[in-house]
Specification:
Strand content of chain A: 15-25%
Strand content of chain B: 5-15%
Order of helices and strands of chain A: HEEEHEHHEEHEEHHHEHHH
Radius of gyration of chain B: 19 Å
Largest sheet of chain B: 7 strands, mixed
Structural class of chain A: alpha/beta
Number of helices of chain A: 11
CATH topology of the largest domain in chain A: 2-enoyl-CoA Hydratase, Chain A, domain 1
CATH class of the domain at 9-183 and 223-248 in chain B: Alpha Beta
Order of helices and strands of chain B: HHEEEHEHEHEHHHEHHHH
Shape of chain B: globular
Number of domains of chain A: 2
CATH superfamily of the largest domain in chain A: 2-enoyl-CoA Hydratase, Chain A, domain 1
Strand order of the largest sheet of chain A: 1-2-3-4-5-7-9
CATH topology of the domain at 9-183 and 223-248 in chain B: 2-enoyl-CoA Hydratase, Chain A, domain 1
Largest interface: A-B, 83 and 92 residues
Number of helices of chain B: 12
Structural class of chain B: alpha/beta
Number of strands of chain A: 9
Largest sheet of chain A: 7 strands, mixed
Oligomer: heterodimer
Helix content of chain A: 40-55%
CATH superfamily of the domain at 9-183 and 223-248 in chain B: 2-enoyl-CoA Hydratase, Chain A, domain 1
CATH architecture of the largest domain in chain A: Alpha-Beta Complex
CATH architecture of the domain at 9-183 and 223-248 in chain B: Alpha-Beta Complex
Helix content of chain B: 40-55%
Number of strands of chain B: 7
Chain lengths: 240, 311
Protein backbone atom coordinates (compact mmCIF):
# COMPACT_ATOMS: atom_id res chain seq x y z
CA UNK A 1 0.00 0.00 0.00
CA UNK A 2 1.19 3.52 -0.68
CA UNK A 3 1.38 6.08 2.10
CA UNK A 4 -1.56 8.01 0.61
CA UNK A 5 -3.72 4.88 0.48
CA UNK A 6 -2.80 3.97 4.02
CA UNK A 7 -3.65 7.42 5.34
CA UNK A 8 -6.95 7.46 3.43
CA UNK A 9 -7.94 4.08 4.86
CA UNK A 10 -6.80 5.00 8.39
CA UNK A 11 -8.46 8.41 8.48
CA UNK A 12 -11.54 8.47 6.23
CA UNK A 13 -12.61 11.66 8.01
CA UNK A 14 -9.50 13.45 6.79
CA UNK A 15 -6.04 14.30 8.11
CA UNK A 16 -3.25 16.80 7.69
CA UNK A 17 -0.38 14.29 7.50
CA UNK A 18 2.40 15.20 5.06
CA UNK A 19 5.70 13.67 4.08
CA UNK A 20 8.52 16.17 3.51
CA UNK A 21 11.91 14.81 2.44
CA UNK A 22 10.82 11.43 3.74
CA UNK A 23 9.83 12.65 7.21
CA UNK A 24 6.14 12.18 8.03
CA UNK A 25 4.35 14.63 10.31
CA UNK A 26 0.74 15.57 10.98
CA UNK A 27 -2.33 14.58 12.89
CA UNK A 28 -5.83 13.22 12.45
CA UNK A 29 -8.99 12.83 14.48
CA UNK A 30 -9.88 9.25 15.34
CA UNK A 31 -13.45 7.95 15.45
CA UNK A 32 -13.28 8.13 19.23
CA UNK A 33 -12.82 11.87 18.88
CA UNK A 34 -9.23 11.74 20.11
CA UNK A 35 -6.58 13.41 17.99
CA UNK A 36 -3.61 11.23 17.12
CA UNK A 37 -0.15 12.53 16.35
CA UNK A 38 1.21 10.87 13.20
CA UNK A 39 4.94 10.80 12.57
CA UNK A 40 7.26 8.50 10.70
CA UNK A 41 9.53 7.90 7.76
CA UNK A 42 8.44 7.38 4.14
CA UNK A 43 9.94 6.46 0.77
CA UNK A 44 12.59 4.20 2.24
CA UNK A 45 14.44 7.20 3.62
CA UNK A 46 17.50 6.58 5.77
CA UNK A 47 17.26 7.99 9.29
CA UNK A 48 20.21 10.23 10.01
CA UNK A 49 20.76 12.95 12.57
CA UNK A 50 18.60 15.48 10.69
CA UNK A 51 15.58 13.18 10.35
CA UNK A 52 15.82 11.89 13.92
CA UNK A 53 15.92 15.33 15.55
CA UNK A 54 12.86 16.49 13.60
CA UNK A 55 10.88 13.41 14.64
CA UNK A 56 11.81 13.68 18.32
CA UNK A 57 10.96 17.40 18.20
CA UNK A 58 7.47 16.71 16.84
CA UNK A 59 6.79 14.25 19.65
CA UNK A 60 8.11 16.54 22.40
CA UNK A 61 5.98 19.43 21.10
CA UNK A 62 2.96 17.13 21.10
CA UNK A 63 3.64 16.05 24.69
CA UNK A 64 3.23 19.67 25.73
CA UNK A 65 0.19 20.48 23.65
CA UNK A 66 -1.60 17.32 22.66
CA UNK A 67 -3.21 14.15 23.89
CA UNK A 68 -4.21 10.85 22.33
CA UNK A 69 -2.15 8.05 20.86
CA UNK A 70 0.93 8.44 18.69
CA UNK A 71 1.13 6.58 15.38
CA UNK A 72 4.56 5.91 13.88
CA UNK A 73 4.52 4.99 10.18
CA UNK A 74 7.64 3.25 8.93
CA UNK A 75 9.01 2.74 5.43
CA UNK A 76 12.68 3.53 5.97
CA UNK A 77 16.14 2.46 4.99
CA UNK A 78 18.50 1.61 7.85
CA UNK A 79 20.22 4.39 9.79
CA UNK A 80 22.04 6.73 7.41
CA UNK A 81 25.48 5.28 6.94
CA UNK A 82 27.82 8.22 6.56
CA UNK A 83 30.88 9.81 8.06
CA UNK A 84 28.94 12.99 8.88
CA UNK A 85 26.19 11.21 10.80
CA UNK A 86 28.63 9.18 12.88
CA UNK A 87 30.86 12.22 13.43
CA UNK A 88 27.89 14.07 14.91
CA UNK A 89 26.89 11.19 17.19
CA UNK A 90 24.09 9.40 15.36
CA UNK A 91 23.74 6.93 18.23
CA UNK A 92 22.60 9.73 20.52
CA UNK A 93 20.06 11.07 18.02
CA UNK A 94 18.55 7.62 17.40
CA UNK A 95 18.40 6.75 21.08
CA UNK A 96 16.92 10.16 21.84
CA UNK A 97 14.10 9.43 19.38
CA UNK A 98 13.51 6.01 20.94
CA UNK A 99 13.61 7.48 24.45
CA UNK A 100 11.04 10.15 23.59
CA UNK A 101 8.74 7.48 22.13
CA UNK A 102 9.15 5.24 25.18
CA UNK A 103 8.61 8.17 27.54
CA UNK A 104 5.43 9.20 25.69
CA UNK A 105 4.09 5.65 25.84
CA UNK A 106 4.74 5.42 29.58
CA UNK A 107 3.05 8.75 30.19
CA UNK A 108 -0.41 8.58 28.71
CA UNK A 109 0.39 8.70 25.01
CA UNK A 110 0.23 5.07 23.85
CA UNK A 111 2.41 4.44 20.80
CA UNK A 112 1.57 2.27 17.80
CA UNK A 113 4.07 1.53 15.04
CA UNK A 114 2.84 0.68 11.56
CA UNK A 115 5.50 -0.98 9.45
CA UNK A 116 4.30 -0.67 5.86
CA UNK A 117 7.55 -0.90 3.88
CA UNK A 118 11.18 -1.51 4.62
CA UNK A 119 13.17 -0.79 7.73
CA UNK A 120 16.42 -2.04 9.18
CA UNK A 121 18.93 -1.96 12.01
CA UNK A 122 19.17 1.29 13.97
CA UNK A 123 16.27 2.88 12.11
CA UNK A 124 13.92 0.12 13.23
CA UNK A 125 15.19 0.31 16.83
CA UNK A 126 14.55 4.07 16.94
CA UNK A 127 11.02 3.87 15.47
CA UNK A 128 8.87 0.74 15.26
CA UNK A 129 10.70 -1.24 17.93
CA UNK A 130 10.43 1.71 20.35
CA UNK A 131 6.61 1.64 20.22
CA UNK A 132 4.32 -0.37 22.50
CA UNK A 133 2.58 -2.23 19.69
CA UNK A 134 4.20 -2.77 16.30
CA UNK A 135 1.77 -3.66 13.53
CA UNK A 136 2.86 -4.92 10.12
CA UNK A 137 1.09 -4.50 6.82
CA UNK A 138 1.31 -7.29 4.25
CA UNK A 139 4.23 -6.60 1.93
CA UNK A 140 6.37 -4.92 4.57
CA UNK A 141 9.95 -6.20 4.35
CA UNK A 142 12.03 -5.40 7.42
CA UNK A 143 15.59 -6.71 7.74
CA UNK A 144 18.09 -6.28 10.51
CA UNK A 145 20.92 -5.87 8.02
CA UNK A 146 21.30 -6.12 4.27
CA UNK A 147 22.98 -9.33 3.11
CA UNK A 148 26.14 -7.72 1.59
CA UNK A 149 26.94 -6.01 4.91
CA UNK A 150 26.07 -9.19 6.76
CA UNK A 151 28.44 -11.15 4.52
CA UNK A 152 31.18 -8.63 5.27
CA UNK A 153 30.70 -8.83 9.02
CA UNK A 154 30.11 -12.58 9.34
CA UNK A 155 32.72 -13.51 6.70
CA UNK A 156 30.16 -15.86 5.14
CA UNK A 157 29.38 -15.76 1.44
CA UNK A 158 26.18 -14.11 0.24
CA UNK A 159 25.16 -17.47 -1.27
CA UNK A 160 25.52 -19.18 2.10
CA UNK A 161 23.51 -16.46 3.78
CA UNK A 162 20.75 -16.66 1.18
CA UNK A 163 20.58 -20.42 1.65
CA UNK A 164 20.39 -20.13 5.45
CA UNK A 165 17.82 -17.34 5.19
CA UNK A 166 15.34 -19.74 3.62
CA UNK A 167 15.25 -22.03 6.61
CA UNK A 168 16.20 -19.94 9.65
CA UNK A 169 13.57 -17.54 11.06
CA UNK A 170 15.83 -16.23 13.83
CA UNK A 171 18.22 -14.80 11.30
CA UNK A 172 16.28 -14.27 8.07
CA UNK A 173 14.76 -10.95 6.97
CA UNK A 174 11.00 -10.56 6.71
CA UNK A 175 7.82 -9.57 8.49
CA UNK A 176 6.73 -13.09 9.43
CA UNK A 177 10.09 -13.82 11.03
CA UNK A 178 9.91 -10.67 13.16
CA UNK A 179 6.37 -11.66 14.14
CA UNK A 180 7.63 -15.09 15.26
CA UNK A 181 10.16 -13.34 17.53
CA UNK A 182 7.41 -11.26 19.15
CA UNK A 183 8.64 -8.00 17.62
CA UNK A 184 5.61 -7.54 15.37
CA UNK A 185 2.43 -7.95 17.41
CA UNK A 186 -0.02 -8.42 14.53
CA UNK A 187 -0.35 -8.14 10.79
CA UNK A 188 -3.35 -6.18 9.58
CA UNK A 189 -5.47 -6.98 6.56
CA UNK A 190 -4.84 -4.36 3.92
CA UNK A 191 -8.06 -5.23 2.07
CA UNK A 192 -10.17 -4.19 5.08
CA UNK A 193 -10.59 -0.74 6.64
CA UNK A 194 -7.44 0.27 8.51
CA UNK A 195 -9.59 2.68 10.54
CA UNK A 196 -11.61 -0.28 11.86
CA UNK A 197 -8.46 -2.22 12.71
CA UNK A 198 -6.88 0.81 14.39
CA UNK A 199 -10.04 1.38 16.41
CA UNK A 200 -10.13 -2.27 17.52
CA UNK A 201 -6.47 -2.10 18.56
CA UNK A 202 -6.88 1.11 20.55
CA UNK A 203 -10.00 -0.28 22.26
CA UNK A 204 -8.02 -3.30 23.41
CA UNK A 205 -4.54 -1.85 23.83
CA UNK A 206 -2.18 -4.17 25.71
CA UNK A 207 -0.65 -2.82 28.93
CA UNK A 208 2.55 -0.80 28.62
CA UNK A 209 4.48 -3.67 30.19
CA UNK A 210 6.87 -5.12 27.58
CA UNK A 211 5.95 -8.73 26.95
CA UNK A 212 7.49 -9.21 23.54
CA UNK A 213 9.71 -11.97 24.91
CA UNK A 214 6.67 -13.87 26.18
CA UNK A 215 5.05 -13.40 22.77
CA UNK A 216 8.16 -14.77 21.07
CA UNK A 217 8.00 -17.83 23.31
CA UNK A 218 4.29 -18.42 22.63
CA UNK A 219 4.92 -18.21 18.89
CA UNK A 220 7.96 -20.49 19.05
CA UNK A 221 10.42 -17.98 17.60
CA UNK A 222 12.39 -17.19 20.76
CA UNK A 223 12.19 -20.09 23.13
CA UNK A 224 14.78 -18.98 25.67
CA UNK A 225 14.61 -15.19 26.08
CA UNK A 226 11.57 -14.91 28.37
CA UNK A 227 12.74 -17.69 30.71
CA UNK A 228 16.30 -16.37 30.96
CA UNK A 229 15.11 -12.82 31.71
CA UNK A 230 12.70 -14.13 34.31
CA UNK A 231 15.31 -16.30 36.00
CA UNK A 232 17.88 -13.49 36.17
CA UNK A 233 15.15 -11.23 37.56
CA UNK A 234 14.30 -13.74 40.31
CA UNK A 235 17.94 -14.10 41.30
CA UNK A 236 18.43 -10.34 41.30
CA UNK A 237 15.37 -9.76 43.46
CA UNK A 238 16.74 -12.26 45.99
CA UNK A 239 19.68 -9.93 46.68
CA UNK A 240 17.40 -7.43 48.44
CA UNK B 1 49.16 -21.88 37.12
CA UNK B 2 50.84 -18.62 36.28
CA UNK B 3 48.56 -16.28 38.22
CA UNK B 4 50.70 -13.60 39.86
CA UNK B 5 49.60 -14.35 43.41
CA UNK B 6 52.22 -12.04 44.88
CA UNK B 7 50.56 -8.98 43.33
CA UNK B 8 48.53 -7.09 45.94
CA UNK B 9 44.91 -6.32 44.89
CA UNK B 10 45.53 -2.56 44.89
CA UNK B 11 48.45 -3.01 42.54
CA UNK B 12 46.57 -5.37 40.30
CA UNK B 13 43.63 -3.01 39.78
CA UNK B 14 45.92 -0.10 38.92
CA UNK B 15 48.12 -2.16 36.58
CA UNK B 16 45.38 -4.01 34.68
CA UNK B 17 44.18 -2.59 31.37
CA UNK B 18 40.41 -2.46 31.01
CA UNK B 19 40.86 -2.83 27.26
CA UNK B 20 42.86 -6.02 27.47
CA UNK B 21 41.02 -7.66 30.38
CA UNK B 22 38.30 -10.28 29.95
CA UNK B 23 34.74 -9.48 30.99
CA UNK B 24 35.19 -11.59 34.14
CA UNK B 25 38.40 -9.86 35.12
CA UNK B 26 36.74 -6.48 34.58
CA UNK B 27 33.89 -7.42 36.91
CA UNK B 28 36.23 -8.86 39.51
CA UNK B 29 38.49 -5.80 39.60
CA UNK B 30 35.81 -3.15 39.27
CA UNK B 31 33.83 -4.36 42.28
CA UNK B 32 34.89 -4.69 45.90
CA UNK B 33 37.06 -7.84 46.24
CA UNK B 34 35.05 -11.02 46.66
CA UNK B 35 31.67 -9.28 46.47
CA UNK B 36 30.51 -10.51 43.05
CA UNK B 37 27.71 -13.09 42.74
CA UNK B 38 26.87 -14.16 39.19
CA UNK B 39 23.35 -14.91 37.91
CA UNK B 40 23.13 -17.85 35.48
CA UNK B 41 26.87 -18.34 35.33
CA UNK B 42 28.68 -20.61 32.87
CA UNK B 43 28.04 -23.67 35.07
CA UNK B 44 24.37 -23.39 34.02
CA UNK B 45 25.44 -23.80 30.39
CA UNK B 46 22.75 -21.52 29.02
CA UNK B 47 24.16 -21.38 25.51
CA UNK B 48 22.80 -19.78 22.37
CA UNK B 49 20.38 -22.18 20.65
CA UNK B 50 21.20 -20.63 17.27
CA UNK B 51 24.98 -20.66 16.72
CA UNK B 52 25.13 -24.35 15.88
CA UNK B 53 23.12 -23.61 12.71
CA UNK B 54 26.23 -21.80 11.50
CA UNK B 55 28.63 -24.40 12.92
CA UNK B 56 29.93 -21.79 15.33
CA UNK B 57 31.21 -22.60 18.83
CA UNK B 58 28.98 -21.63 21.75
CA UNK B 59 30.12 -20.18 25.04
CA UNK B 60 28.58 -21.32 28.34
CA UNK B 61 27.75 -17.76 29.41
CA UNK B 62 26.81 -16.61 25.87
CA UNK B 63 29.39 -13.84 26.13
CA UNK B 64 27.96 -11.81 29.01
CA UNK B 65 28.47 -11.85 32.77
CA UNK B 66 25.62 -10.46 34.89
CA UNK B 67 25.21 -10.34 38.64
CA UNK B 68 25.34 -8.42 41.86
CA UNK B 69 28.20 -7.02 43.93
CA UNK B 70 29.40 -4.04 45.88
CA UNK B 71 31.16 -0.88 44.79
CA UNK B 72 32.78 1.02 47.64
CA UNK B 73 30.47 -0.86 49.99
CA UNK B 74 27.22 -0.09 48.17
CA UNK B 75 25.20 -2.70 46.26
CA UNK B 76 25.27 -2.59 42.45
CA UNK B 77 24.06 -4.74 39.62
CA UNK B 78 26.61 -5.29 36.89
CA UNK B 79 26.70 -6.64 33.36
CA UNK B 80 29.89 -7.11 31.34
CA UNK B 81 30.06 -8.15 27.70
CA UNK B 82 32.89 -10.36 26.48
CA UNK B 83 34.13 -8.69 23.32
CA UNK B 84 36.29 -11.70 22.43
CA UNK B 85 33.27 -13.95 21.99
CA UNK B 86 31.35 -13.17 18.78
CA UNK B 87 32.53 -9.55 19.07
CA UNK B 88 30.39 -9.11 22.18
CA UNK B 89 27.32 -9.13 19.97
CA UNK B 90 23.78 -9.36 21.31
CA UNK B 91 22.04 -12.68 20.80
CA UNK B 92 18.88 -14.06 22.38
CA UNK B 93 20.37 -15.42 25.62
CA UNK B 94 23.04 -12.71 25.96
CA UNK B 95 20.43 -9.97 25.66
CA UNK B 96 17.82 -11.63 27.87
CA UNK B 97 20.26 -11.73 30.80
CA UNK B 98 20.65 -7.97 30.68
CA UNK B 99 16.91 -7.44 30.20
CA UNK B 100 16.17 -9.51 33.31
CA UNK B 101 18.76 -7.59 35.34
CA UNK B 102 17.29 -4.22 34.34
CA UNK B 103 13.72 -5.30 35.03
CA UNK B 104 14.70 -6.38 38.54
CA UNK B 105 16.57 -3.10 39.07
CA UNK B 106 13.38 -1.24 38.14
CA UNK B 107 11.50 -3.10 40.86
CA UNK B 108 14.15 -2.56 43.50
CA UNK B 109 14.71 1.08 42.45
CA UNK B 110 17.65 1.84 44.74
CA UNK B 111 20.36 -0.40 43.27
CA UNK B 112 22.21 1.13 40.31
CA UNK B 113 23.24 -0.86 37.22
CA UNK B 114 26.71 -0.78 35.65
CA UNK B 115 26.92 -1.93 32.03
CA UNK B 116 30.41 -2.69 30.70
CA UNK B 117 29.75 -2.50 26.97
CA UNK B 118 32.03 -4.35 24.55
CA UNK B 119 29.99 -5.03 21.46
CA UNK B 120 29.72 -4.87 17.70
CA UNK B 121 25.91 -4.73 18.00
CA UNK B 122 23.45 -7.38 16.88
CA UNK B 123 24.79 -10.93 16.55
CA UNK B 124 23.92 -11.40 12.91
CA UNK B 125 23.62 -15.19 13.06
CA UNK B 126 20.55 -14.60 15.24
CA UNK B 127 19.81 -11.14 13.91
CA UNK B 128 16.07 -10.95 14.61
CA UNK B 129 16.39 -12.18 18.19
CA UNK B 130 19.38 -9.90 18.81
CA UNK B 131 17.72 -6.81 17.34
CA UNK B 132 14.64 -7.38 19.47
CA UNK B 133 16.76 -8.06 22.56
CA UNK B 134 18.32 -4.62 22.09
CA UNK B 135 14.87 -3.02 21.76
CA UNK B 136 13.78 -4.76 24.96
CA UNK B 137 16.90 -3.62 26.79
CA UNK B 138 16.41 -0.01 25.66
CA UNK B 139 12.84 -0.12 26.96
CA UNK B 140 14.01 -1.74 30.22
CA UNK B 141 16.74 0.90 30.70
CA UNK B 142 14.22 3.70 30.31
CA UNK B 143 11.71 2.05 32.61
CA UNK B 144 14.44 1.52 35.21
CA UNK B 145 15.63 5.12 34.92
CA UNK B 146 12.04 6.34 35.24
CA UNK B 147 11.79 4.35 38.49
CA UNK B 148 14.88 6.15 39.78
CA UNK B 149 17.60 3.65 38.87
CA UNK B 150 20.98 5.01 37.79
CA UNK B 151 22.28 3.13 34.75
CA UNK B 152 25.96 3.80 34.07
CA UNK B 153 27.74 2.67 30.90
CA UNK B 154 31.49 1.99 30.85
CA UNK B 155 33.07 1.79 27.40
CA UNK B 156 36.65 0.84 26.71
CA UNK B 157 36.70 -2.66 25.26
CA UNK B 158 38.22 -3.97 22.07
CA UNK B 159 34.93 -4.29 20.23
CA UNK B 160 33.91 -0.74 21.15
CA UNK B 161 30.20 -0.04 21.36
CA UNK B 162 28.60 -0.29 17.93
CA UNK B 163 25.22 -0.80 16.32
CA UNK B 164 22.39 -1.28 18.78
CA UNK B 165 25.00 -1.09 21.54
CA UNK B 166 25.50 2.54 20.56
CA UNK B 167 21.77 3.21 20.90
CA UNK B 168 21.69 1.44 24.25
CA UNK B 169 24.62 3.56 25.46
CA UNK B 170 22.60 6.62 24.48
CA UNK B 171 19.85 5.44 26.82
CA UNK B 172 22.12 5.26 29.88
CA UNK B 173 22.09 7.91 32.62
CA UNK B 174 25.78 8.61 32.02
CA UNK B 175 28.82 7.16 30.24
CA UNK B 176 32.50 6.88 30.97
CA UNK B 177 34.77 6.18 28.02
CA UNK B 178 38.47 5.60 27.45
CA UNK B 179 40.41 6.34 24.31
CA UNK B 180 39.88 2.90 22.70
CA UNK B 181 36.17 3.00 23.55
CA UNK B 182 34.62 3.76 20.18
CA UNK B 183 30.91 4.60 20.14
CA UNK B 184 28.94 4.61 16.88
CA UNK B 185 26.01 3.02 15.08
CA UNK B 186 27.46 1.96 11.72
CA UNK B 187 30.92 0.44 11.92
CA UNK B 188 33.68 1.59 9.55
CA UNK B 189 33.49 -1.57 7.42
CA UNK B 190 29.73 -1.31 7.09
CA UNK B 191 29.88 2.31 5.95
CA UNK B 192 32.59 1.44 3.46
CA UNK B 193 30.66 -1.58 2.14
CA UNK B 194 27.51 0.47 1.61
CA UNK B 195 28.85 3.85 0.58
CA UNK B 196 32.32 3.22 -0.75
CA UNK B 197 35.85 3.89 0.42
CA UNK B 198 35.50 7.56 -0.56
CA UNK B 199 32.84 7.97 2.14
CA UNK B 200 34.77 6.13 4.82
CA UNK B 201 38.10 4.32 4.55
CA UNK B 202 37.83 1.65 7.23
CA UNK B 203 41.56 0.93 7.05
CA UNK B 204 42.39 4.52 8.02
CA UNK B 205 42.64 3.82 11.74
CA UNK B 206 43.36 7.45 12.63
CA UNK B 207 40.10 8.41 10.92
CA UNK B 208 38.20 5.74 12.85
CA UNK B 209 39.60 6.89 16.21
CA UNK B 210 38.97 10.57 15.70
CA UNK B 211 35.44 10.04 14.32
CA UNK B 212 34.21 7.41 16.78
CA UNK B 213 36.80 7.21 19.55
CA UNK B 214 36.52 8.16 23.21
CA UNK B 215 38.22 11.53 22.92
CA UNK B 216 35.80 12.81 20.29
CA UNK B 217 32.81 11.44 22.18
CA UNK B 218 33.96 13.18 25.36
CA UNK B 219 34.52 16.52 23.61
CA UNK B 220 31.09 16.31 21.94
CA UNK B 221 29.43 15.64 25.29
CA UNK B 222 28.32 12.16 24.23
CA UNK B 223 30.26 10.74 27.19
CA UNK B 224 30.41 12.49 30.55
CA UNK B 225 33.78 11.26 31.72
CA UNK B 226 36.98 10.37 29.88
CA UNK B 227 39.16 7.94 31.74
CA UNK B 228 42.55 6.32 31.37
CA UNK B 229 42.55 2.62 30.53
CA UNK B 230 43.23 0.99 33.92
CA UNK B 231 40.63 -0.80 36.01
CA UNK B 232 41.35 1.65 38.81
CA UNK B 233 40.46 4.59 36.57
CA UNK B 234 37.22 2.94 35.43
CA UNK B 235 36.27 2.15 39.02
CA UNK B 236 36.79 5.77 40.02
CA UNK B 237 34.85 6.96 36.97
CA UNK B 238 31.91 4.70 37.86
CA UNK B 239 31.90 6.05 41.43
CA UNK B 240 32.09 9.64 40.19
CA UNK B 241 29.17 9.14 37.83
CA UNK B 242 27.04 7.41 40.45
CA UNK B 243 27.49 10.52 42.58
CA UNK B 244 26.60 12.92 39.78
CA UNK B 245 23.57 11.38 38.09
CA UNK B 246 20.19 12.87 38.89
CA UNK B 247 16.67 11.63 38.32
CA UNK B 248 15.16 11.12 34.88
CA UNK B 249 12.11 12.90 33.52
CA UNK B 250 10.67 14.95 30.67
CA UNK B 251 12.99 17.86 31.49
CA UNK B 252 15.96 15.65 30.59
CA UNK B 253 14.48 14.78 27.21
CA UNK B 254 13.71 18.41 26.43
CA UNK B 255 17.24 19.38 27.42
CA UNK B 256 18.62 16.60 25.21
CA UNK B 257 16.57 17.87 22.27
CA UNK B 258 18.16 21.30 22.77
CA UNK B 259 21.63 19.82 23.29
CA UNK B 260 21.53 17.74 20.11
CA UNK B 261 19.85 20.49 18.07
CA UNK B 262 22.54 22.89 19.20
CA UNK B 263 25.22 20.38 18.13
CA UNK B 264 23.75 20.18 14.63
CA UNK B 265 23.62 23.95 14.28
CA UNK B 266 27.20 24.39 15.46
CA UNK B 267 28.91 21.47 13.81
CA UNK B 268 26.53 20.21 11.13
CA UNK B 269 28.75 21.49 8.33
CA UNK B 270 32.04 20.19 9.76
CA UNK B 271 33.73 17.58 7.62
CA UNK B 272 36.07 16.09 10.16
CA UNK B 273 36.45 15.79 13.92
CA UNK B 274 39.42 18.17 13.79
CA UNK B 275 37.09 20.85 12.37
CA UNK B 276 34.70 20.34 15.29
CA UNK B 277 37.51 20.52 17.85
CA UNK B 278 38.84 23.67 16.19
CA UNK B 279 35.36 25.20 16.23
CA UNK B 280 35.28 24.43 19.95
CA UNK B 281 38.31 26.65 20.39
CA UNK B 282 41.02 24.02 20.74
CA UNK B 283 44.33 25.35 19.48
CA UNK B 284 46.27 22.86 17.35
CA UNK B 285 43.26 20.54 17.35
CA UNK B 286 45.09 18.11 15.09
CA UNK B 287 47.27 17.13 18.08
CA UNK B 288 44.32 15.96 20.23
CA UNK B 289 44.80 12.28 19.28
CA UNK B 290 48.39 12.43 20.58
CA UNK B 291 47.55 13.87 24.01
CA UNK B 292 48.11 11.63 27.02
CA UNK B 293 45.06 10.78 29.11
CA UNK B 294 46.01 13.33 31.77
CA UNK B 295 46.61 16.07 29.21
CA UNK B 296 43.36 15.24 27.45
CA UNK B 297 41.30 15.16 30.65
CA UNK B 298 42.60 18.63 31.56
CA UNK B 299 41.62 19.87 28.09
CA UNK B 300 38.21 18.20 28.18
CA UNK B 301 37.45 19.60 31.61
CA UNK B 302 38.20 23.06 30.26
CA UNK B 303 36.51 22.83 26.86
CA UNK B 304 34.49 19.67 26.45
CA UNK B 305 30.74 19.69 26.72
CA UNK B 306 28.82 17.40 29.03
CA UNK B 307 25.45 15.81 28.62
CA UNK B 308 24.70 15.95 32.32
CA UNK B 309 20.99 16.67 32.89
CA UNK B 310 20.46 16.40 29.14
CA UNK B 311 20.25 12.70 28.32
Amino acid sequence: MTLDNILASLFPGGHDVRSVNGVIFGSAVLRSGARTLVIGVADRTAIGVDEAIRLSGYILDSLDQGSGPILVLVDSDSQRMSKRDELLGLNEFLSHLAKVLIYADMNGRPTVGLLYGHSAAGALLATGLATRVLVGLPGADPAVMDLPSMAKVTKLSIETLQEKAKSTPVFAPGLSNLALMGAVHMVWNNAASLADQMEALLADMPAAHDRRDALGKERGGRLKAADIAERVGELALQTR
Amino acid sequence: MTAPLHVAPAERISSTSFNEASARTRVELLLDPGSFVEFIGPEKRQISPHLRIFDLPEQFDDGIVVGHGRLDGSPVFIAAQEGRFMGGAFGEVHGAKLTGLLRAARQIRSTPVLILFDTGGVRLQEANAGELAIAEIMRAVMEARTAGVKVIGLIGGRAGCYGGGGLMAGCCSALAVSEPGRIAVSGPEVIETNRGVEEFDSRDRALVWRTMGGKHRRLLGAADVFTDDTMQDFREAALDLLGLVGSFGLDKLKAEQMRLGDRLRRFGACEDAVDIWTAEGIAHAETVPELSADQFIALANRIGRTSRDAR
